[in-house]
Amino acid sequence: MWVNPPYSMNVKTNVGKVFFNLLNLHFPPHHRMRKLFNKNTVKVSYCSMENMMNIVQRHNATILNSSNKKESQPCNCRDKQACPLDGKCRSESIVYKATVESGNTTKHYYGLAEGEFKYRYNNHTKSFRNAQYSNETVLSTHIWSLKTSEKPYVIKWVIAACASSYKCGTRRCNLCITEKYIIATADPATLLNKRTELLSKCRHNNKFIMRNFPT
What we know:
- The model has no long low-confidence stretch (mean pLDDT 85).
- This protein has helices at 15-26, 52-64, 117-129, 138-148, 174-185, and strands spanning 2-3, 43-44, 94-102, 105-113, 154-162.
- The protein is an alpha+beta fold and 215 residues long.
- A three-stranded antiparallel beta sheet has the order 4-3-5. The chain has a two-stranded parallel sheet with strand order 1-2.
- The radius of gyration is 21 Å and the shape is globular.
């Protein structure tokens, strides 16, 4: 993980030293997030920081253009009452939350969908039905463990957050960052997601890489 503070000749403070002191203060050795946030995993650098004017202009453009966002397509489920997201199954660029209730146990799983959620939902249900896909996600693994133990369960789906996905020319994917933030701040006692997901690389920029274009 890289932290890139804006460079300024007027700043005389040793920003790197102050930053690492804050890192040690808020993530002491006994902290549960210490393995992710320490001086060996977090780096400080000025070299790749964008111009502050570009950052401010991009932020302003995002705020001003928020009203021009494309509206979600209407639900096309045959049974509207059975829609997993209460009529919002075709929402795009979302972080969704699946709550699995079985007896007195409740577990939560977070995932993201850059395209329509319904395609992601269909992949999940496929892994719930077919044993050959039982290890496709930690959610499907949990569902099959309940099936093997013959425990009844109920799954509820909701939209946890909305965020824009990676755009060509930018340096971050707000959709992936939002998902990682939600996973990092969730209760580990009821969370199905693995902490290693916080270190996973964004896959949404692959479609903009030249070597992935067909020749």
